[in-house]
Amino acid sequence: MTLPNYITLFRILLVPFFFTALVSYDSGQESNRWIALALFAVAVSTDALDGFLARVMHKKTNLGRFLDPLADKLLLLSGFLGILFVPTLLYRPPLWVTVTIVFRDLVIVAGLVIVYLLNGKLHVRPNFLGKMTTAFQMFTFIAILLEWKMAIPLWYTTAGITILSGITYVARDLDQLK
Known about the structure:
By secondary structure, the protein is mainly alpha-helical. It has helices spanning 3-23, 30-56, 62-82, 95-119, 128-145, 151-177.
């Protein structure tokens, strides 16, 4: 195990604490929103750190290629699903935005499983649009927790990028089946 992989595992371990703080937030317990925001910010920072260290230290591993996107998905899905249980947030995206984010990830994972089952091998390569989607989702979530009004146009932009990214991943998976 490499240092970047340990950092990624740490991000995964933060998810239940972040989720608990998030869904425990209500107008009477403002501190839980700030705790959720702090944990989310730490997790986002470790996402940048583990990738940077893996490149600089030449420690890219197959485990890291698997764990890093898994950690991102766990963090973001728990966040967007968690806000469904927090009616006291000032700005909450419409349900269809959360469904779009969750559905894209389910389609990507299902596509990868199908490609693996049919080909016996799998090439998991993030693309620029996928990385941009993750960044927009993270920034949107931070804007929601900070209760910034800009969260509203951000979640619509994020939904659009999420849809485009999902289409590119489906096209890539279909290409791998040829």
